[in-house]
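Sharing a chain and its predicted structure for anyone who wants a worked example. Both blocks are below, sequence first, tokens second.
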Amino acid sequence: MINMYKMSRVLKLCMLALTVLAFGSIILAACARPGSTSQAPAGGSPPAASGGNSGNSEASVSMNATNFTEKSVTVSKGSSLSLVNSSSVIHIISNGTWENGTTPKPGAEPGAPKVSNMTVATGQTEKVGPFTTAGTFQLLCTVHPGMNLTVIVK
């Protein structure tokens, strides 16, 4: 009878462990984004996007969890810029810059395309432009202090 008691206890512990693993799997599956795959290399940040070489009608810049993967990008006059959210967080983009990485300074330079609270959701791409005036323009993410992008239009 003692052996049956031990077997029953071991069986109960095994069932408990399987139940915990099953719930863990369900929670993990529920938190995953449908159709998403990890594109980040072993270093942890997504691959850098192209920087608008001459002949390209459009440049793109990726965003990780807290920053643009490039600090500046050069685009051709008349082209647009794609902002690619490669992270699992939302970014809200506007004209302006972060001063000293802590104080947002909203505002658009003359000739800049107007960008005001553009939401770039997880895994999404949004376009800014076209940039019709040559010059240097600033974009910031209002959610992440210090997240600035300089767009140079030639």
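Comments welcome. The chain has two domains: 1-32, 58-153.
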